[in-house]
TrEMBL record, chains A, B:
It comes from Dietzia aerolata. This is 3-isopropylmalate dehydrogenase. It is found in: Cytoplasm. Pathway: Amino-acid biosynthesis; L-leucine biosynthesis; L-leucine from 3-methyl-2-oxobutanoate: step 3/4. SUPFAM superfamilies: Isocitrate/Isopropylmalate dehydrogenase-like (SSF53659).
Amino acid sequence: MKLAVIPGDGIGVEVTAEALKVLDALVPGVEKTEYDLGARRYLRNGETLTDSDIASLKEHDVILLGAIGDPRSVPAGVLERGMLLPLRFALDHHVNLRPSKLYPGSATPLKNPGEIDFVVVREGTEGLYTGNGGAIRVGTPHEMGTETSVNTRYGVERVVRDAFARAAARRGKLTLVHKTNVLVNAGGLWQRTVDEVAPEFSDVEVDYCHIDAATIYMVTDPARFDVIVTDNLFGDIITDLAAAVTGGIGTAASGNIDASGTNPSMFEPVHGSAPDIAGQGKADPTAAILSVALLLRHVGKTAEADRVEAAVEADLGSRGEAPVVTSEVGDRIVAAL
Amino acid sequence: MKLAVIPGDGIGVEVTAEALKVLDALVPGVEKTEYDLGARRYLRNGETLTDSDIASLKEHDVILLGAIGDPRSVPAGVLERGMLLPLRFALDHHVNLRPSKLYPGSATPLKNPGEIDFVVVREGTEGLYTGNGGAIRVGTPHEMGTETSVNTRYGVERVVRDAFARAAARRGKLTLVHKTNVLVNAGGLWQRTVDEVAPEFSDVEVDYCHIDAATIYMVTDPARFDVIVTDNLFGDIITDLAAAVTGGIGTAASGNIDASGTNPSMFEPVHGSAPDIAGQGKADPTAAILSVALLLRHVGKTAEADRVEAAVEADLGSRGEAPVVTSEVGDRIVAAL
Ligand SMILES: CC(C)[C@H](C(=O)O)[C@@H](O)C(=O)O
Ligand SMILES: CC(C)[C@H](C(=O)O)[C@@H](O)C(=O)O
């Protein structure tokens, strides 16, 4: 396995080290290449993501990313639009996979959370993220700015199929989240695609809810969800809320997957670089370690993925109130494997 | 005061009756015209909203709406796109005002809600709600569908000013919610408009958060919000979530306001027509009654609005676990005025 590692900035570096500890303990001999991408490189030489970075990343089987960004020194949007999003497009990461599970001991803000265990399949290469928009008369009283959501049958169908397959392998329930009553063109395409693929997965029950109603269910009845499939922006919103109801982004892992296998998929914690706590050894590496589990499952190492998840679950259940020490979490999980 | 009343469908009719009880008790002699709009009329003659409906509604000072729709017999989207949204555009309801308050006794799903008391100023006539989009090759493997968010300085500035004024009259904090790191054209316009209007309201502290992060704060720290200003779609999403964290849409009121005063503004509960419980006298009319309070405040009857809100607050605090009886709630609130 050839692994590209992008530790990134802030706590990204710290949590990646722990994630690699866990990976090394389970799969010896992984060939790793480290990439210097993120705020530090941008501040040094103005580069965000070059063509040669992309070409070189493509020569790997899989990518592990820590976290990118430094809001104190890099203007908002520069690394998002210069690196994170271009990478998703260049590597055709159309399945943005975000599992949400309430682990024992996690600090959910909900009074009665129930059993939360679902995955969101967020489309990653279309919608409002395509940079299709423009502005005229900027800075004048007549300024006009647009953003266009682009949706293709090709792009929608591949994530819908992926989501159906995941639902069939889980509890057999798929929920489309959209806003079909207002966004008729995009919504119609999504709804029809789901309806047309459904007969191929006759064991999967199909449900629909508007994005506004979905946020209500997320706090009143999150146990109703098994697999959610949705577009790029709705997926962005609902997965942050999902992370919050399962106790925060400290345990939220994600995969940016090219389901065709043409390009390497990338796994990363949902959290950011958290410069406020960087360098203090107190970031929780759990989300990065769970990203390794997703990575292992993606490359077919199911037993190893199960072991990581079981070790994480046990660790979260036994932590109590003691403050997190980054390296100790990694050590404990390695010991528990 | 000339009031147009649109009871609508399902529980809309029942809660409107209670709302009018409260209005009549406080402001005698309101001249009311009832409008037959919604699912019943559509099913009878196929009409959703005619030009003459609009012309006639415009001759009123203010509008009270119950709820529209019957998902059992009217296809999703027909009344939304045929009546609710056209009304917002025809009457230039650019300020979609949605207060969220955690009343004593409300069933919040949050463990530690804190003191929730904020208002969302949602833009109501632009963004992704303008019907700007299209589709080609519909129903083929090459289908492509778009939705375009339209944002103008004129349209943004008037709601930003309205939101600043509301913040200045409340706790002095305004939070812009958007997704400026991805939606650069729309986001840039919103952010610059806020920055440029801010010096006129030097007592108002200005904050920004991405829509995804805003959903996290909504469940972990909703007390941080005072006034939120945001676009049409983000406002749709965040206000449903806000209603959920304050105990459900049973108490969520809203105003569709033409802040210029050219057209009548419209007040309505956020909830729908709930056909499952319609006709049983068990719908909670509180949101409709609180919509009357918003209406009264809008027409300058501040003391009357305060009395309604105080009576509602007392009623919610003293209800206990007894099931709601629609007419009794109205009677109790009238008695408590
Ligand atoms: C950083 C940002 C561009 C990104 C997104 O909006 O996709 C983030 O919020 C995420 O969810 O991965
Ligand atoms: C019914 C629908 C068109 C509407 C909206 O999306 O604005 C509703 O959700 C609302 O929030 O008033």
